[in-house]
Amino acid sequence: MSSLASNRSSLWFLAITLLSFLAASTAPTPLYHLYQQQLQFSATVLTLIFAVYALSLLAALLTVGSLSDHLGRKPVIFTAILLNGAAMLLFIYATSVEWLISARVLQGFATGMATAVLSATLLDTDRQHGPLINSVAPLLGMALGGMGCGLLAEFAPAPLQLTYWLLLALFVLQGVYVWRLPESVTPQVGAWASLRPTLHVPMQARSILWRVLPLNTATWALGGFYASLAPSLVRTATGSTSNLIGGATVAVLTVTGAMMIFTLRQRPAAQALRSGASLLPIGVILILLGVHSASLPLFFLGTLVAGCGFGSGFLGAVRSLVPLALPHERAGLMAAYYVLSYLAFCLPAMLAGHFSRLYGLVLTTDGYGAVLIVLAVAALLLSLRAAPAKVCSAP
Questions:
Q1: Where are its TM segments located (predicted)?
Q2: Looking at CB atoms within 10 Å, which of 4, 74, 202, 292 has the fewest?
Q3: What DSSP designation does 13 have?
């Protein structure tokens, strides 16, 4: 019974820690326009601040993504927490664009390290609930970070510092508690070699990874757009100046995604993929109609539908992949998955930021939405032809 209680407490800790890292990642989203007003930087610099986070996260996944397979889970989790705590301090005392960029670089690296190791540790701890938590916690974390920071910015003092102080306190507590976790893997040789930038995808998972790639790219590209340009899009289309808009756009997308994941948690991965590929394009069409009619309710209705597709696609991809890796392959597979996901998260949004300066944000959004619709339809066709994958048995 004590072993069961210990396993449950570990599961809760890992879920909350993963949630808190993703909450910290979206906390700056509602604050971007305040930073612009205070530090007087352009939309180009705003796109750079968004991009360096994702690129740094990718660097972490490519280098230290599978490090915990060699050193053990606990020291890598602790290091990620320590780095993210330092990033919170940089945000708190940021007085220039350079400080903001430094904070986002450090935060991106910490989040990339944490995402891979926490995802693998969740699977080590509970094979039944681990995949569900890996799917739900990041989305809820992004929602809490965006909406929570938006609320604090609107109604609490020190909008550019308070959120980060609260997150810093949470990371300190997590850094202390992590050493109480049981170690779930036996350290192996090859830690230095594992730092060489490679993607560790098990042979048996490669075909499935390519098969889920179109929908996974569409879902993460939508998430990147919402984390960077959607608040500006809403302000452009509706004229709203509320601090809550930035957080609300992210929160609506990710909360509905998390709810969809929970709803489909017992359904086959193939069904989740088909649901995502069907709902995502409908949602994008409604979003575009909301933009062109300057209708905030229609925009958020489209976000709700797209969020359902977002969650379904995310769940389908994770549940298709995680059974295909042996224990010592899990961190590497999750790192590879998140590398592809965060490339989809940042690169399309960066291109959209560039094209918005040339053609305007609304026209750029039309093109962006059209690409997402094409990817989702292609994914739907692929899912209808998909064959069952062979599952690896864990010892």
A1: 42-64, 76-95, 101-123, 135-156, 162-179, 208-229, 244-264, 276-294, 300-322, 334-355, 367-387
A2: 4
A3: H
| Gap between the Cα atoms of 217 and 206, Å rounded | 16
How many of the other CB atoms lie within 10 Å of CB of 324?
22
Task: Give DSSP secondary structure letters for 264-308.
Answer: TTTS-HHHHHHHHHHHHHHHHHHHHHHHHTT-HHHHHHHHHHHHH
pLDDT digits (tens, 9 = 90+) for 135-182: 788 888 989 998 999 899 889 999 999 999 999 999 999 999 999 888
* Cα separation, 160 vs 143, whole angstroms: 18
Determine contact, residues 318/133, Cβ cutoff 8 Å. no
CA distance to 53, 110, 258, 374, per residue, from 143 (Å): 18, 19, 9, 27
328 exposure class (CB count in 10 Å sphere: 0-12, 13-18, 19+): middle
Tens-place pLDDT, residues 325-353: 777 777 678 778 878 888 898 889 888 88
Closest residue by Cα to residue 39 from 87, 88, 100, 108: 100
Distance CA 212, CA 176 (A): 38
What is residue 186's predicted lDDT score, i.e. its pLDDT?
74
Tokens for 31, please give them.
């604050």
Spatial contact of 71 and 187, defined as CB atoms under 8 Å apart:
yes
Torsion of CA 295, 300, 302, 307, to 10 degrees: 170
**What's the rounded Cα separation, in Å, for the pair 368 and 373?**
9
pLDDT one-digit tens code per residue, 224-257: 898 888 888 888 887 777 778 878 888 999 999 9
Residues in the chain: 395
Nearest to 224 by CA among 342, 313, 387: 342
